[in-house]
Amino acid sequence: MAEEMEERASGDVVSDKTVSPEPEPAPVKVPDVELVVDGFGFMPKSPDGSGSNLRPRKLSKGSKETQSPDTRGSPCMSSTNIDIVRRFTWKTKNRMTVQVITYGATITSIQVPDKKGVPDDITAGFDTLEEYFQPRNPYFGATIGRCANYVRGAAMSVRPAGRVYMLSANRGRDHFNGGFVGFDKVNWRSHVVGNKVYMSHVSERLHEGYPGTLMTQLCFEVTCDNTIHIEMKCTTTEPTVVNLSNAQFFNLAGHHNGSESMYEHIVTINADKYTQVDDEGLVTGEKKVVGGTAYDFRVPRCLKAMLPKIPMGGYDVNFCITQGTAQDLTFHARALHPGTGRVLEVYSNQPGMQFYTGNRLPDPEKIVEPLPGALNADEEDGIEQGESEGSELREEDDGENGDEASGAGSEGVEQYGYVPLTGKGGTLYKKHGLFCLLPQNYPDAINHKNFPNSVLNPGEVYVHKIQYKFGILLGKYV
User: Fold this and answer.
1) Pick from 1, 194, 202, 379: CA 20 to 30 A from residue 462's CA?
2) From start to end residue, where is composition biased (Acidic residues) (predicted)?
3) Which residue, 68, 25, 48, is CA-closest to 154?
4) How far, rounded to the nearest angstrom, does the alpha carbon of residue 356 sit from its chain's CA centroid?
5) Which among 186, 58, 202 has a CA at the least distance from the CA of 132?
6) How far apart are CA 373 and CA 460, in angstroms?
7) Can you tell me the distance from the alpha carbon of 365 to that of 363, in angstroms, rounded to the nearest whole number?
8) pLDDT averaged per 10 residues, the chain (length 478)
9) Calpha distance 73→55 (Å, rounded)
């Protein structure tokens, strides 16, 4: 024992403990979902410099003032004069990419892989902000409000007071998708919390004729299971009508692949009834049973076999979703493209879903005959606009894009054809090239007592949830 103490005192003792090497740095963990924020453009300035292109107008004698777009400026507005349009990009570990901009709270791009792992953009849109401003934009990817779809005669009676309000008539004599400057033409305020993006907007009282000041908040989130979550909440200062929706134009084969690939989709819709429409496409208040009709999608149906059965040139109908009692999210629809294997499922808490097959997108086979007499400069420039969703316009045909009109090759003869709608990457969006699955309340529900309630009262919260789930069919569809 004494010898051991002497050796320690001399300092010649070598410790038995070995020095362990420094641990290797842990590999950087790639997040399941990555969110990137950048800019997409700037809002145009209004003539008065206020950032809002709105001016008061009177609807009729004795009625109160509302607001309509000033034709001297761009038909859009900013929420509290925000100039920058921000873009948010989610990237998941499963190779899905989603982009949303604050203008119109619009989803501009959804890229998902096919069964071979090759991603492609499957939703319609434009490359630049200025293209989203154009009057012919068919609401591509935008948030629709205050009231989606039609309000017949642009008039509604809000109970319990029963007062009649006149809304702006932006589609003939009717009100459509929130009016001239709806939620799709607003630059929303935004902030980020984790991987969630919140957007907010205050719609002032009597804007587009709506009663009450409506406060709206949206939440966008993309999760690693390739699901887009959208939650919409509203509160109001007076009883008012609210029916929000999200207008995604899909083609699971790729937004650029046109009608032939759209016809290949196999669609399932969880509804045993649909709302009957008249010759003008407006609901009559009657609900029809889908059984034995071309509207029966309770079992998977191929659009190529179903579209010829529709006399109106395609589907543009609201389905009454079958919901369980006390059920939050309900399965609405499923779309499958067998060639790529991409599958889309739509879930929501809304009672209805509008199914639309792009019937009013420009039709290259429809030739517009010239009116008698010479055309003036405005008509030659195509200023005379039709419906906002790709209505066919008159314009001189210069032979571009291979779209020929009658009389092609004749010198000195004015030629007319459809006006193409050019989207992302120079894609020409045409009739039946895309389809929509829009969760919402029934159209014109405010004017039909037998439809679900669409009135939001002070103290209540309107909550609308949507989920777009994307997947892949690995086997062969039978």
Assistant:
1) 194
2) 377-403
3) 68
4) 12
5) 186
6) 58
7) 5
8) 56 54 67 92 63 41 40 50 88 96 97 94 96 95 96 90 90 95 96 96 95 97 96 97 97 95 97 94 95 95 94 90 86 97 97 96 72 42 40 36 35 56 95 96 95 95 97 74
9) 11
**CB neighbourhood size of 366 (10 A):** 10
What is the amino acid identity at position 390? G
| 223 contacts 229 by C-beta, under 8 angstroms | yes
Q: Tell me the CA distances in angstroms from 423 to 23, 110, 165, 261, one per residue in order.
A: 53, 14, 37, 17
* Dihedral in degrees, nearest 10, Cα atoms 60, 62, 63, 67: 70
Q: What is the dihedral of CA 5, 10, 16, 21, to 10 degrees?
A: 140
Q: Is the peptide bond before 57 cis (omega within 30 degrees of 0)?
A: no
Q: Which residue has the tokens 């009454």?
A: 320
User: Cα 28 from chain centroid?
Assistant: 36
User: Model's pTM, two decimal places?
Assistant: 0.80
Render 374-402 in DSSP notation, one character per residue.
Answer: ---HHHHTT-S---TTT-----B---GGG
- The amino acid occupying position 180 is F
Task: Tell me how far apart the alpha carbons of residues 258 and 421 are, in angstroms, rounded to a whole number.
Answer: 13
CA separation for the pair 234, 384 (Å, rounded): 36
End-to-end Cα distance, the chain: 86
Token pair belonging to 118: 């090759």
Q: Which of 155, 139, 146, 165 is nearest to 203 (CA)?
A: 146
Q: Any alpha helices (H) in 257-314, and if so which ranges?
A: 258-263, 303-306
Query: Do residues 241 and 249 make contact, with C-beta atoms less than 8 angstroms apart?
Result: no
Residue tagged 């690693």 (tokens): 224
The residue behind tokens 């499922």 is 345
Read off the amino acid at residue 474. L
DSSP H helical ranges for 102-244: 129-133
What share of residues in the chain are helix, strand, coil (percent, to 5)?
Answer: 10, 40, 55
The closest of 74, 120, 113, 70 to 94, measured between CA atoms, is 113
DSSP structure class, residue 87: E
* Token representation of residue 140: 């591509």
d(CA 293, CA 276): 12
Among residues 73, 107, 86, the alpha carbon closest in space to that of 41 is found at 86
Tally Cβ neighbours within 10 Å of residue 281: 14
